[in-house]
Amino acid sequence: MEFDSGFWMQVLVYAVSFGIFYGNVMVRLKALERKMDQHNNVIARTYKLEESCKSAHHRIDELRGELERG
Known about the structure:
The protein is mainly alpha-helical. 93% of the residues lie in helices and 0% in strands. The mean pLDDT is 93.
């Protein structure tokens, strides 16, 4: 069984097309990963902010109690 140059050219075109497609998919996945990391960072910061706010409210309530007693 002998393969002519047309066959090898077709195999080469398919390989290049697959490589371009794979590269495009990987670039898009990396961009989505970066966006997801940024989103997760915002969630973590919001959680810390809520904890800080809760702590501040407790401290304000303590100070109010001290003012009312004293």
